[in-house]
Design a protein that fits this description.
It is a single chain. With 184 residues, the protein is mostly helical. It has a domain of 119 residues. It is built from eight helices and two strands, in the order ααααααααββ. It has a two-stranded antiparallel sheet with strand order 1-2. Helix 4 crosses helix 6, helix 5 packs across helix 8 and helix 6 packs across helix 8. It is extended, with a radius of gyration of 25 Å. It comes from Frateuria aurantia (strain ATCC 33424 / DSM 6220 / KCTC 2777 / LMG 1558 / NBRC 3245 / NCIMB 13370) (Acetobacter aurantius). Pfam families: FAD-SLDH (PF12318).
Length: 184
């Protein structure tokens, strides 16, 4: 057997494996989005992550409890694609609190939803999380693909698209065209 307690040689392979595993686990817990981002977006990301206000607004608008990473990506995508977003969403939240509008149905029935600045920002936030992206055309930013809120209502009949739905190498063979010889 070997080992330090028996006075024999120490198994360095096992010790290195343990050290590597612990280092990998430690690295996984680092906030990489903050560390790799520039200073301004890193501080904005940290504020949004710690902001119960943003989380509350999205929950009231979508009636969904979303993952923190999805909430952060939604905020970043909307900020990148909508000028004035950073000042518009807190104003919408304040108006919703003042009028005691705490869910999508109440918002749709309230006079607040008839006012254009609030309506536009509310629809932009709802669309970002339901469709999984914010912005249009070349300015489009991904929020979430698999966790987009458009999928759960029809989950019993709709398969959430994934990278390889048909299995490995499914895309290699051309799909059948339905045209047989002599029908051209």
């Amino acid at each position: 057997m070997g080992g330090a307690e028996s006075g024999g040689p120490v198994d360095l392979h096992r010790r290195r494996l343990l050290q590597g595993t612990l280092a990998g686990v430690g690295l996984a817990w680092l906030p990489w989005d903050t560390l790799l981002a520039d200073g301004a977006s890193a501080s904005a990301a940290a504020e949004v992550r710690a902001s119960p206000d943003w989380n509350q607004l999205v929950q009231w608008l979508t009636a969904a409890d979303l993952d923190g990473a999805v909430l952060l990506r939604g905020h970043q995508a909307l900020a990148a694609t909508r000028p004035g977003f950073e000042s518009a969403w807190p104003e919408l939240l304040a108006a919703m609190r003042q009028q005691r509008v705490h869910d999508p149905d109440a918002l749709a029935a309230s006079p607040l939803f008839q006012q254009e600045p609030q309506r536009a920002i509310a629809l932009a936030i709802i669309s970002a999380f339901y469709l999984g992206h914010a912005g249009e055309d070349d300015q489009r930013q991904l929020v979430s693909y698999e966790q987009a809120l458009m999928y759960p209502p029809t989950l019993d009949i709709t398969v959430i698209p994934t990278y390889a739905r048909g299995g490995y190498n499914d895309w290699v063979a051309a799909p059948p065209t339905g045209i047989t010889e002599g029908q051209g």
